[in-house]
Amino acid sequence: MSPEELRQRLDAFLGVEAEPLQARDPVNQPMIRHWCDAVGDRNPVYTDPEFAKQSVFGGIVAPPTMLQAWTMPGLAPPPARSSASPHPLRAVLDLLDAAGYTSVVATNCRQEYRRALVPGDRLQVTTRIEKVSDEKKTALGAGCFVDEVMVYRDARGEEVARMRFRILKFRPPARGRGA
Question: What is the Cα–Cα distance from 138 to 130, expressed in whole angstroms?
Fold first, then answer.
């Protein structure tokens, strides 16, 4: 496919929002505790109910760094999609793979928090492709940057956080025989 055709096909996914993905479980104290243990976070507002009750939050809150963990699908097969259209990110990645950009690296992640997550919150996330760059020359190889925006909402539909995530899909350099 020509660069112009690739650009046209990629542009068709800009601004397209994927179906919301529901968290499998609500925000909960055991998972908060496991997370804090795993990363060595000893902030008592996450794990000590008495301390948390006296804080500005008035109770236990989840570490902001857990945001994405609540909606990760885990190892179970993904649920059947209700529409025939592919997830916009999957479609963009497939197009870039077909164009020879077969390697990937995450380059940027920026999270904005509207409020702290509390036990019982049930999140959903929607994703949309914000931008796909033209080919750029990088130290890893020639590639395209893909920017997606994820909006996290609670069960009432109120936005609780937003994440901007950028990856680079690139052509790995050819390896010599001895590599």
Answer: 21
DSSP 8-state assignment for residue 125: E
Structural contact between residues 157 and 89, judged by C-beta atoms closer than 8 angstroms: no
Give domain status of residue 78, yes or no.
no
Dihedral sign, Cα of residue 19, residue 24, residue 27, residue 31: negative
Per-residue pLDDT of the chain (179 residues; tens, 9 = 90+): 888 999 999 999 999 999 999 999 999 999 999 999 999 999 999 999 999 999 999 999 999 999 999 998 888 766 665 555 678 899 999 999 999 999 999 999 999 999 999 999 999 999 999 999 999 999 999 999 999 999 999 999 999 999 999 999 999 888 766 55
Three-state DSSP class for residue 152: strand
Range of the domain at 155: 3-24+84-170
Q: How many structural domains comprise the chain?
A: 2
